[in-house]
């Protein structure tokens, strides 16, 4: 089975379009509103996603830089690890609901004072992420793993990591929708 980079790019663009059209135009008071003190505001969720990108964009760049170019008739095989499949499954929302409540690592916690520029930063990061997916289409990523935020010993195959990041973002789009309703 081959990696479907077009599907990954399409899912990524859906998230980008949602943020641009539905979240960016909202007034600051809505973006900063929390349902409870324990909940994150929409801007805090976006800030959290930016912190994830701060770690993963360089890791993707490094993995793709070291990967060989695809041959004329080859494609990257879809590979996955057990932990990767479980991580993607647990992150991906079911409809408009998050499957599980999860705690985040301290280094991914959002800043308390976030500004609307946080969304602009996210959109720039999202464009970089999309460019990396496009670059990945030209690489033979079969067998190539990259580290995760879970530690250097926990590695996912590169396409699997793209899918994990998207599942993570999809989960947080549900959280943003809940925060701004």
Q: Can you describe what's shown?
A:
- There is one protein chain.
- The protein has 181 residues and is mainly alpha-helical.
- It has one domain: dinb family like domain (Four Helix Bundle (Hemerythrin (Met), subunit A), Up-down Bundle).
- It contains 6 helices and 2 strands, in the order H-H-H-H-H-E-E-H.
- It has helices at residues 5-23, 28-31, 42-65, 82-91, 117-136, 158-180; strands at 145-148, 151-157.
- A two-stranded antiparallel sheet has the order 1-2.
- Strand 1 and strand 2 form a beta hairpin.
- 30% of the residues are buried.
Topology:
Layout: H1 5-23, H2 28-31, H3 42-65, H4 82-91, H5 117-136, E1 145-148, E2 151-157, H6 158-180
Antiparallel strand pairs: 1-2
Q: What is the N-to-C order of secondary-structure elements (H for helix, E for strand)?
A: HHHHHEEH
Number of strands: 2
Strand order of the largest sheet: 1-2
Total of domains: 1
The shape is elongated
What top-tier CATH class fits best?
A: Mainly Alpha
- The DSSP helix count reads 6
Strand portion: 5-15%
Helical/strand content category? mainly alpha
Quaternary state of the chains: single chain
Unreliable parts = none
Report how far the terminal alpha carbons are from each other. 40 Å
Estimate the mean pLDDT confidence: 84
Radius of gyration: 17 Å
CATH architectural name: Up-down Bundle
The CATH topology assignment is Four Helix Bundle (Hemerythrin (Met), subunit A)
Most strands sheet:
2 strands, antiparallel
């Amino acid at each position: 089975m081959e990696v479907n980079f077009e599907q990954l790019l399409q899912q990524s663009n859906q998230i980008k379009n949602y943020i641009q059209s539905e979240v960016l135009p909202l007034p600051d008071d809505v973006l900063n509103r929390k349902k409870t003190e324990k909940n994150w505001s929409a801007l805090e969720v976006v800030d959290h996603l930016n912190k994830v990108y701060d770690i993963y964009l360089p890791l993707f760049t490094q993995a793709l830089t070291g990967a060989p170019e695809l041959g004329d008739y080859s494609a990257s095989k879809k590979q996955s690890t057990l932990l990767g499949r479980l991580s993607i499954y647990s992150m991906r929302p079911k409809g408009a609901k998050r499957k599980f409540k999860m705690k985040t690592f301290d280094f991914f916690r959002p800043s308390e004072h976030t500004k609307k520029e946080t969304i602009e930063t996210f959109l720039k990061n999202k464009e970089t992420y999309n460019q990396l997916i496009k670059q990945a289409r030209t690489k033979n990523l079969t067998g190539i793993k990259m580290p995760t935020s879970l530690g250097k010993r926990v590695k996912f195959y590169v396409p699997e990591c793209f899918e994990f990041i998207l599942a993570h973002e999809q989960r947080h789009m549900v959280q943003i929708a809940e925060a701004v309703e």
